[in-house]
Specification:
By secondary structure, the protein is mostly helical. It has a domain of 71 residues. Helix 2 crosses helix 3. The longest helix has 44 residues. The protein is extended, with a radius of gyration of 27 Å. The N and C termini lie far apart (78 Å). The relative contact order is 0.04.
Length: 146
């Protein structure tokens, strides 16, 4: 049965199993968040201790998944905005590329600028330390002599 499910899929069986596990757990969290959004919380005044402890655990679980989904939403939104901005920069530079092919075009651009980036990667830290020595060298040496 497992080979049949994986037939024509690009994933190995262990990656498919991991993706299924993560998907099931995330779906359970989404159901928790949605159900607590739609169903109002009952009043637990005067309830038994077991019920109060169970409610505490349920509220913590909802808080955890709500925070996870909110962070995931903002991460996806930020990455998409970055993708659009990079695509716009490529288009302004004269390279017409589809939105989701932006990173492959940036990879080609990066490899062409790699020698320049390596030189700058060596020069900039060196210049930073030289400027630091010019600005703070005298005060650091006078503080150590006291």
């Amino acid at each position: 049965m497992v080979p049949r499910l994986l037939e024509g899929q690009p994933l190995d069986w262990y990656w498919a199993l991991l993706a299924t596990f993560v998907g099931v757990i995330a779906f359970r969290g989404a159901v928790d968040v949605i159900s607590h959004k739609l169903i109002p919380a009952p009043n637990l005044y005067g309830a038994q201790t077991e019920l109060l402890e169970e409610d505490i655990v349920a509220r913590r679980r909802v808080w955890y998944w709500r925070t996870r989904f909110r962070r995931l939403f903002w991460l996806v939104l930020t990455l998409f905005a970055l993708l659009v901005a990079l695509n716009l920069m490529l288009r302004l530079g004269g390279t017409k590329v589809e939105l989701f092919d932006t990173f492959s075009a940036l990879g080609d651009l990066f490899t062409s600028f790699l020698p320049t980036l390596l030189i700058l990667g060596l020069q900039l830290p060196l210049l930073f330390f030289i400027n630091f020595a010019i600005l703070f060298g005298r005060s650091c040496s006078s503080a150590s002599s006291r």
